[in-house]
Amino acid sequence: MRRAMELAAHAETQGEVPVGAVLVKDGEIIAEGWNESIGQHDATAHAEMQTIRKAGEVLENYRLLDTTLYVTLEPCPMCAGALLHSRVKRIVFGAPDLKAGAAGTVLNLFEHQAAYHYADVEKGLLEDECRVQLQAFFKRRRKEKKKERKAMQILEIKSGQEKEG
């Protein structure tokens, strides 16, 4: 999970939501990824998706049997579906996703009756650290957006004054 957190920090330096993931097989990291949706202009470029794509290439198989995914944020429904389809055996996540968590927080696709494959889910590994990393990012982002809105208001006021004068 520490490596996943490093990857999340890298995502943040790229202007992405700081989520990182690593896939482990037989005690070795075989693939890793981080959020790249903004930079790649691809809504599916979540950390989990990037990681399982790379792992499929490494293993030359989309079935990622007997693997464990470590991810800093609980998978969303899209990622949960892909993890199930790729047969990842175990998912370990740090922080719960209170809005879109699909591994037990909002819904649990890993235990849903319609699932054709099941995975073991472990939640809360380094939860506080993962949550703080995400919260700091969104707090900073809200502050930046507020600053941008204020700057736009000032520009609009100045523009209006120039038209009057």
From TrEMBL:
Residues 1-107 form the CMP/dCMP-type deaminase domain. One of its GO terms (biological process) is tRNA wobble adenosine to inosine editing. It is an enzyme of class 3 (hydrolase). Binds 1 zinc ion per subunit. Its EC number is 3.5.4.33. InterPro entries: APOBEC/CMP_deaminase_Zn-bd, CMP_dCMP_dom, Cytidine_deaminase-like, tRNA_aden_deaminase. It catalyses: adenosine(34) in tRNA + H2O + H(+) = inosine(34) in tRNA + NH4(+). The active site is at residue 48. It holds the Pfam family dCMP_cyt_deam_1. Keywords: Hydrolase, Metal-binding, tRNA processing, Zinc. Its cofactor is Zn(2+). One of its GO terms (molecular function) is tRNA-specific adenosine-34 deaminase activity. PANTHER family: CYTOSINE DEAMINASE FAMILY MEMBER, TRNA-SPECIFIC ADENOSINE DEAMINASE. This is tRNA-specific adenosine deaminase. It comes from Vibrio orientalis CIP 102891 = ATCC 33934.
